[in-house]
Amino acid sequence: MRVPDAGLVRSVIRGGVRRRIRGYRRRGGILMYHRVIDAAFDPWGICVSPRMFDEQMQVLAEHRSTVDAVSFSADGDAYSRSGERLAVTFDDGYLDNVVAALPILERHEIPATIFVIGNAVGRTREFWWDALERAVLAPTVLPVELEITLGDERHRYTLADGSAEQATDGSAEQVTDGRWRADVDAAVTDRQRLFATLWAAIVVLDPDEQDRAADDLLTWSGQRVSVPRIMVDDNEFAELAAHPLITVGSHTLDHLSLTDLSPRRQRDQIHGGHRRIEELAGRRITCFSFPFGRYDDSAVAAARELGVDIACTSVPEPATVTDDRHTLPRLQALDLDGDAFARWLRDDHRLLRA
Ligand SMILES: [Zn+2]
């Protein structure tokens, strides 16, 4: 048996005490969504099917508990002992937010905040993370060898465990397992390891290098490089910005990993994205969220300089009244039916009054 060291025991106790103290503070929940779509694979758990999203919004509507995310600002009224107030947010600016989510939000009269990447609006190609999923997780068969230039470096990978060829004999389940989660499950097959390795290597590149890597991977895997547009265009953005239920927020210019950038580049990304969204919306924008939930002191300082009411992270906790309004935690809503969604809010987070 492994004997835990005293430092670990102390930190576990501290973590438990901290959670208990947080649990007694006035609180509420900020829900984080990305896409409302039926997805064949979803390694980050960011896709909720339209049917499940409808059931989840039905739960919120029955409790009459939804508020705007900015109600979690300094003088906001979203915090309560019972934790019954919840806000719905979306990140990135996917077209399905307009096509699939908006009619459901309208039917249940639920407000939502959509944090849009500045350079996503009108973008006709995928972002690299969507291309990477399609290139590495979708095909039934992949070439065994991959040689690719990432940034200035040439990389070589081999799919040696058979996860490349296995698919041809019908034993494809492990290879193309749509339930595999990159953030929860261990990478077991070479294909899953390749996905995780490439993701970590591409996230730190510049935008044009990311796009080049995406094209090279799609070509290598035999997938089409160009696909129908999946981000909002100017008109759809304008529809969101004018909609009485929707608040638009900013989400940087290019969705880079802020913690891998210098403070100066962080500021360029955060302020540049905010200006772009304000120009498109034609008015002041009052909320922001950190891409990939990644932030550090200088990124938070740059977000604070925007003068926004709230900035959201992806720390998976309820928001409590003493939290810093520029690093508000958010709970990632998964593809659950209404009952499981309600249980998750109540049992795991003591939100949503019984
Ligand atoms: Zn994002």
TrEMBL record:
List the SUPFAM superfamilies.
Glycoside hydrolase/deacetylase (SSF88713)
What is its subcellular localisation?
Secreted
Keywords for the protein's UniProt record, in alphabetical order: Signal
Q: Name one GO molecular function term.
A: hydrolase activity, acting on carbon-nitrogen (but not peptide) bonds
GO annotation, cellular component aspect: extracellular region
Q: Which domain of life is it from?
A: Bacteria
- Which Pfam families does the record associate with it? Polysacc_deac_1
Tell me which residues make up the NodB homology domain.
Answer: 84-354
Which GO BP terms sit in this record? carbohydrate metabolic process
According to UniProt, the name of this protein is NodB homology domain-containing protein
